[in-house]
C-alpha cells in the first residue's frame, strides 16, 4: 500500500475512533436510564461498524482498481519494449546479413581476379 494509502487509513481509523468515543461519552452523560443508554450505545456501535465496513469496501475497491490499472499499464509497457527490442534486432540482423553477403561477394570477386 502506498504511503498516501497508509495515511488515509490512519486518518480514517482516527476519525472513526474519535466519533465512537464522542458518541459513547455523550450517551453516558445523558440523563437516561442505564438500559436505554446501553441500547443506544449498542445501536451506535453497530452503525459505526457498518460505516467502517462500507468504507473498507470502498477503499478496497479503489485499491483493486488501481492495482488493475497499474498492472495493465506495466504489461502494455513490457510488451511495447519487447516488440521494440525484437524489431531492432530484426532490423540490425538483416543489415548485418546483407553486409556480410556483400563482403563475401567482394572477397570472391577478389579471389577470382587473383586466379586469373
UniProtKB/TrEMBL annotation:
<dbReference type="InterPro" id="IPR024623">
    <property type="entry name" value="YtxH"/>
</dbReference>
<dbReference type="InterPro" id="IPR036191">
    <property type="entry name" value="RRF_sf"/>
</dbReference>
<protein>
    <submittedName>
        <fullName>YtxH domain-containing protein</fullName>
    </submittedName>
</protein>
<dbReference type="InterPro" id="IPR052928">
    <property type="entry name" value="Desiccation-related_membrane"/>
</dbReference>
<dbReference type="Pfam" id="PF12732">
    <property type="entry name" value="YtxH"/>
</dbReference>
Amino acid at each position: 500500500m502506498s504511503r498516501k494509502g497508509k495515511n488515509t487509513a490512519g486518518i480514517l481509523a482516527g476519525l472513526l475512533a474519535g466519533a465512537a468515543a464522542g458518541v459513547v461519552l455523550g450517551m453516558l452523560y445523558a440523563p437516561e436510564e442505564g438500559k436505554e443508554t446501553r441500547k443506544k450505545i449498542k445501536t451506535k456501535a453497530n452503525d459505526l461498524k457498518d460505516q467502517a465496513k462500507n468504507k473498507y469496501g470502498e477503499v478496497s475497491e479503489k485499491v483493486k482498481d488501481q492495482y488493475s490499472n497499474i498492472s495493465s499499464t506495466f504489461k502494455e509497457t513490457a510488451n511495447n519494449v519487447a516488440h521494440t527490442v525484437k524489431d531492432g534486432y530484426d532490423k540490425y540482423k538483416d543489415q548485418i546479413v546483407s553486409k556480410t553477403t556483400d563482403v563475401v561477394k567482394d572477397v570472391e570477386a577478389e579471389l577470382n581476379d587473383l586466379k586469373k
